[in-house]
Amino acid sequence: MKIEQHIYARTAKPLYTAGEGYGTVSKTPGLADAFVKEKLHPLCGYPAVLQNKSSITVANFPCGKMLLGQCKFKQDNDRGTFFVRNYVLPSAKAALLTQNIDKLRRVDFENDILDAIDELPMIHKDFSIIQLDTEWLAALARYITAAVYSGKRAYVVMTENSDFVWNVLQQVYPILQIDVRQLLGFTTYATGAVNKEGLHLIFITKDGAKDPKLLQEFVVHYPSPLPSLVNGDLFATLPLKKFLNFINLLHIRLPGHKDYLHLLETKWLNANLNKLSLAQTLAIPKDFIMRGKKNNSCELHIAVEITQLAAKSPTDTRYKIGAYMLAEETKERVLQNLTRLFGGKYDNSTKHI
C-alpha cells in the first residue's frame, strides 16, 4: 500500500471550510475526506511561538495507520504562517518505522512531490549522540507506558542541546514494549499543555513546563527520574486513593518493577505520613508494608504498622514489630502521629517505643 500525503496551511480557499484561513490545502486521493477532517485536522495545530523551529508529530490510529507530520514556521510576506506536511503510512510501513527511529529522524518533509509514494524520502542529518542515564530512560519508559494506557500524558522538558529530543526517542523506543510502540503518539516541540487525542509523549520548553494545566500529568526533567507537578510534588499532592491507583497502573502494565514502585510508594508515604487520617492509614495495603520492611527503607513502613496495630491495642503490640530499632527522628514522628490520631489515650504508653 502507498504512503499518502496531506498539506495543511493558511490559504484563501481551504478544501473543507469557507473563507480564508488555516485548513487542508491539498491531499492525495487515497485519503478519505472524513479521515482528513476527523483525524488529521485536530493534529495540525501549531505552538503559538514556534518561530523558526519545526516540530515533528507522530500519531497512531486504531485502524493501524500512522500520521508522520512536520509543522514548520514560514515567513509569508509581512506575516508568519505555519505549514504542516503529513505523511500517512499504512500499518505495515508504520510497524517498520517504529523499529527504526533514526529513519524517522531523517524523513524529508521539503520534497515537492504530492503523490502517493512507496517509500518516505530521506535526507542526511548530522546527529550528535548523547548517552542518557539508563535509570532515567527506564523511568521514562514507565511513564510513557502509563500514558498510553491512561488519560495522562508524559511531558519531557527539553534541554539546551538541540539533539536531546532525538536522543531520547532513539534510546527509549528500544526498551518500550512492542504494543506500546504501536500505540504511542508524540510531538517534539510544545510550549504548553497539549490536549490532543493520540499524543502521549510531549517534549516541552522549560517555560511551557510551568503551565498550570499540567497538574497531575507526568512532567519529567533530565536527569531526575521522578516526575514533578507544576505546583509541587506529585507524591505529596495526590490523595491516597489516586496515588494507589497510579502505582497500580504502572505495576499492572509493567510487571517486574517492584523496586521502582517501592521507591514511589516510600516517597509518597514520607510526604504524607504526618497528615494521613486514621482511615487512610488503616487502608494502606499490608503488602506495601511488608515490602518496606524487607529493605533499607523500612522505617516509614514500620511507622505505619505501629499506627495500624495501635488502633487495636494501645500497649503491647509495638514492641513485637521492632519499633525499638527505629531512628530517633522516626520515633518522634510515630509519637506525634499516635498522639494526633488517638489523643492523650496513648501518651503514657508511646514513650516506651
Based on Cα principal axes, name the global outline: elongated
What is the mean pLDDT?
A: 83
Give the H and E element order.
Answer: EEHEEEHHHEHHEEEHHHHHHHH
Low-pLDDT stretches are none
- Count of DSSP H/I helices: 14
Could you give the distance between the termini?
72 Å
Estimated helix fraction: 25-40%
Provide the β-strand percentage band. 15-25%
Strand line-up in the sheet with most strands: 2-1-5-4-3-7-8-6-9
How many domains make up the coordinates? Answer: 3
Instruction: Characterize the largest beta sheet: strand count, sense, and whether it forms a barrel.
Output: 9 strands, mixed
How many extended strands?
9
Structural class, please?
A: alpha/beta
Radius of gyration, rounded?
26 Å
